[in-house]
Design brief:
78% of the residues lie in helices and 0% in strands. By secondary structure, the protein is mostly helical. The longest helix has 29 residues.
Length: 664
């Protein structure tokens, strides 16, 4: 005797092979005959398809559901209104579909019409939620009513998900309230209502609703699945896992329960992540078209630092559901970890094109922009994420502080770092950022206090020692410089010295009269970052101290090439050439510096010295006058130098006149 599932499979193949012939024959008939014959075909075809769906629901033919959907779409469609289709692709089509469903519900649907209608509606429901709990072959009028209500709810949910307005949310909740009141046996409407409340507010708002759902005899598996999500939101992970396991015991094919259980496992250590991956791979076998499973596999791959594999999973999720911004956000995360910042920026933009209210997308966009060298845009993106209530506010505040530092907006840097510390005063990274921001705002004592707090949190944190070293160096005293050197040594012993720290250490060693050690530290800084203009400048100054004038000229030229708009770099070039006695070249470079910073008395005074050495005493005197106008604080010194130059100029002029008289 042929087994039922084999018989049904053969029958389905036979009917599917006859579709084209049947359609050709139908086109030759009159409209009345077409309607009559189509009704008969719809009954047979939809009943067979519905039976096969029941087989699919038990996992024997999961991959054939889409093919059967196409088949039932063609077989059952002609028997009913042409606008009752299985694949609405826009909000307008969903709205029209919902209105048509209202008409069908209100018109009555008893007798043999129940089977094809239920098959069509069930397939459509399966596209929205992959429901596997009802066999349309066995549906009576009450079951068909429930299926139609589920489709209506799915359509309303899709409309709400597009705009996420308060009015649409209230309409959706009211819809499930009405359904729950009219059907006291079905826990499904209360479970979905609890799920909506969980998305829209704290877990406590959904707890009583889900308990009511669990008291009802039908669809308790869905109620347990939602209860598990509520418990997970309250960080009661053990109870949540029990709820998901109970949902799977009642309905082994519940994809949502499997995915959520896997998510819980992924919260743990690496071994649990592997267990989560196994569960998610099972979901992919049961439901090859589940985008959520692919997305969660991407998250697991991220936890295992397999970022390239994560991108592949996120791409698969996007291919299955291009309208969902979540996979684009995950993809941007993975691309940032791979250093592919422009691609990450594009992925974050794609997420925002679909939902511009997602703080995670703005967060990723901020990180990608900052790492791409656009700190001002990154700061604006981070502040937008903060406005949208990014759930990880400490992290986004730190991102904003980093961006503000790079953009040179140090007051904003201090504000964001302060907010991060207020949210979590044990966050060492936030405390280091606060120390840095206070130092940039000329608050050396505040910077020192924040660095001390960071070290109190973790005394082995090299960044904390660096922050304390920078804060000590900014105070300027002899004891402070000694403490700063000690802090940098601590950071160096922990293997976490960056280029800026080596530059600061070199400055301190030079000030302490240890130029050889200073030069060594500065060369390390340049080895780490050869584009650091300050490192080249400090190296040039140290080489001048050591009497290596030509090497100093080369170092100073490198600094000016890297930062041609900083007057200090050109001043260094002039000083190096002064040491070599190359006065004409020194004059050209100090004049460039004076042009960049005309209000600097020091630059004008040095220009006067160079002019004096060149014997151009009148110009030198005028240069000292410019220095005096720019820097009245050094009135006595500059005035004395100016008078001396004027005296030398007058003597030079007298001797020139005497020489001319004698020649006559």
């Amino acid at each position: 005797m042929t087994r039922p599932n084999v018989f049904l499979s053969r029958l389905i193949k036979t009917v599917e092979g006859m579709k084209d012939a049947i359609a050709c024959w139908l086109r030759r008939l009159s409209p009345e005959w077409i309607t009559a014959v189509a009704s008969v075909i719809a009954l047979v075809g939809a009943a067979v398809a519905a039976s096969q769906l029941w087989i699919d629901a038990r996992g024997r033919r999961a991959a054939s559901a889409v093919v059967l959907g196409e088949m039932c779409d063609e077989l059952a469609g002609p028997a009913f209104s042409s606008d009752l289709r299985l694949r609405p692709r826009s909000i307008d089509e969903l709205s029209a579909f919902r209105r048509r469903l209202d008409e069908v519900r209100n018109s009555g649907y008893d007798g043999h019409e129940t089977h094809p209608l239920t098959a069509v509606l069930y397939l459509h429901e399966a596209r929205f939620e992959r429901l596997r709990g009802i066999s349309p072959m066995e549906c009576g009028s009450a079951d068909c009513e429930r299926v139609i209500r589920r489709i209506q709810g799915a359509a309303l949910y899709s409309i709400w998900a597009e705009g996420r307005t308060e009015a649409e949310f209230n309409t959706l909740v009211a819809y499930y309230d009405d359904w729950a009141s009219s059907d006291q046996d079905d826990g499904y409407p209360l479970a979905i209502k609890a799920s909506m409340l969980l998305m829209h507010g704290p877990p406590s708002a959904a707890e009583n609703v889900i308990l009511d759902a669990l008291r009802r005899p039908l669809n308790r598996a869905r109620a347990y699945e939602v209860q598990g999500r509520i418990q997970a939101a309250r960080a009661d992970y053990a109870s949540a896992m029990k709820s998901f396991d109970e949902a799977l015991r009642l309905e082994p094919m519940d994809v949502a329960a499997r995915i959520n259980a896997a998510n819980l496992l992924a919260r743990g250590e690496t071994s649990d992540v592997y267990a989560a991956i196994r569960r998610l791979e099972t979901v992919c076998v049961l439901d090859p078209f589940n985008a959520t499973a692919r997305y969660n596999l991407g998250i697991c791959a991220m936890k295992l630092k397999r970022h390239t594999r994560a991108v592949e999973y996120f791409d698969a999720a996007i291919a299955l559901d291009p309208a969902d911004p979540t996979a684009y956000i995950g993809r941007a995360d993975a691309l940032i970890a791979l250093g592919r910042f422009q691609e990450a920026l594009s992925s974050a933009d794609s997420a925002l094109d679909r939902d511009e209210t997602r703080p995670a997308a703005w967060h990723n966009r901020s990180v990608a922009n900052r790492l791409s060298g656009h700190p001002t845009i990154a700061l604006a993106d981070a502040e937008r994420a903060i406005e949208l209530k990014d759930p990880d506010e400490v992290k986004i505040r730190k991102v904003a502080a980093y961006a503000a530092h790079q953009a040179g907006e140090h007051e904003k840097e201090r504000d964001h770092a302060t907010a991060a510390v207020e949210l979590n005063d044990d966050d060492g990274e936030a405390l280091v950022l606060l120390s840095q921001a206070r130092r940039e705002c000329k608050d050396s004592d505040g910077a020192m206090a924040a660095a001390d707090r960071a070290l109190a949190v973790n005394s082995k944190d090299a960044n904390g020692w660096l922050a304390k070293g920078f804060a000590s160096a900014s105070k300027g005293g002899t004891a402070d410089r000694a403490l700063a050197l000690q802090c940098f040594r601590e950071a160096q012993s922990r293997g976490s010295m960056n280029a800026r720290a080596y530059v600061a250490m070199g400055q301190l060693l030079r000030q302490a009269g240890r130029p050889l050690e200073a030069a060594s530290s500065l060369k390390r800084a340049i080895a780490l970052d050869s584009n650091d203009a300050d490192a080249w400048y400090e190296l040039g100054a140290t080489l001048l101290d050591l009497g290596h004038c030509e090497d100093a000229v080369a170092a100073m030229d490198s600094s000016a090439k890297l930062d041609a708009y900083d007057a200090k770099m050109w001043y260094g070039c002039a000083r190096a050439r002064e040491g070599c006695g190359r006065w004409e070249e020194a004059l050209v470079r100090i004049e460039t510096a004076c042009g960049l910073e005309p209000g600097s008395g020091q630059l004008h005074a040095f220009r006067a010295e160079v002019l004096h050495e060149l014997g151009r005493h009148g110009e030198a005197a005028r240069a000292y006058e410019s220095a005096l106008e720019s820097d009245p604080a050094n009135d006595a010194w500059i005035s004395g130098q100016a008078r001396e130059l004027q005296h030398q100029a007058s003597q030079s002029g007298s001797s020139e006149n005497a020489t001319k008289g004698e020649s006559r």
